[in-house]
Amino acid sequence: MCGLAGFLARDFGQAEARLAAMCAAIAHRGPDDAGQWLDGAAGIALGHRRLAIVDLSPAGHQPMLSADGGLVLAFNGEIYNFRELRARLEAEGRAPAWRGQSDTEVLLAGFAAWGVEATLGAAIGMFAFALWDRGRRRLTLGRDRMGEKPLYYGWQGEGAGRAFLFGSELRALAAHPAHGGRIDRDALVGFLRHGHVGEGLSIHRGIRKLPPATIAELSFDRPEPVLTRYWSPVDLALRPPAARDPETATDELETLLRDAVGRQMLADVPLGAFLSGGIDSALVVALMQAQSPRPVRTFSMGFREKRYDEAPEARAIARHLGTDHQE
């Protein structure tokens, strides 16, 4: 899962302890490793908690510096096509001397070679990140296309204690002394009315969620975050559809799904799947099993209340697919 946290502040007193507290608040997101990177002259602090999935070695430690030392990245997520991006960097002669095999290093190299927006346009994955440009003293936050990975941000505090806070969870921001902790009543009304806090808001006043498929840039010279949308599902949906017969469309959909599932099976740790007994999880597990040399590990939960219990259906699907199933 991983998690990131950090702040931008003029008052850098006790910065290391404050960053440590923010990261400790999200330690459950990354039990395998922890890292901090601070630059008091620039007023930036980046922290990371790591759950190691790809490249379990210390070469995947974060925050990670680019090969030339100009960029610093704290990254949460996974880039499923990082091997293709790595090969492209090498073919263009823009690859650094690789230190490891992590997708984080490839993403960082892409940012250095192609820029943030172009790299995200080429990347396939789920992610949230904070990138510090040391030369320009500029902070960039980014989130994946569908908003799978969370990222909260906002200016908090007053006067000399004012700080721009960001992190994977609200509890990380709340660990910083500048955090006000006041309830956003507009967000509360939206939650009571709709059952969720609306896009771009959070339950805390002054703290926002970065929208999906969006990057935000800011600095002390330009403190108001400038948001840029790098992808839109609406634009994609409005494209004129290609003329296909149903059988061809079905085959193409299966190819896309197989490719998407196969990419997400790349890991240096054991993988499994939650099997609910429904169509979606059954389809995912079927595509996993079709591409796995051994039985896929599947898991499901049953209930004593028969009206809620789908364990028998999940068990039947697991038996049909030949998975290593546990209830």
Indicate the percent of residues in helices: 25-40%
Shape: globular
How many β-strand runs? 15
Helix and strand run = EHEEEEHHHEEEEHHEEEHHEHEHE
**What is the rounded Rg?**
22 Å
CA distance, first residue to last residue: 23 Å
Strand order of the largest sheet: 2-3-1-9-8-10
The biggest beta sheet is recorded as: 6 strands, antiparallel
- What percent of residues are in strands? 15-25%
Based on helices, strands and strand pairing, what is the structural class? alpha+beta
List the total number of helices.
10
Low-confidence stretches: none
Oligomer state of the chains in this structure: single chain
Provide a descriptive summary of the structure in words:
The protein is of the alpha+beta class. The chain is 31% helix and 24% strand. The strands form three sheets. It has a six-stranded antiparallel β-sheet. The protein has a six-stranded antiparallel β-sheet with strand order 4-5-6-7-11-12, covered by helices on one side. The protein is globular and about 65 Å long.
How do the helices and strands line up, and which of them pair or pack?
Blueprint: E1 3-9, H1 15-24, E2 33-39, E3 44-50, E4 64-65, E5 71-79, H2 82-91, H3 103-114, H4 116-122, E6 125-133, E7 138-143, E8 152-156, E9 163-167, H5 170-174, H6 185-194, E10 208-209, E11 214-218, E12 226-229, H7 233-237, H8 246-263, E13 272-274, H9 279-290, E14 297-299, H10 311-321, E15 324-326
Helix pairs in contact: 2-3, 3-4, 9-10
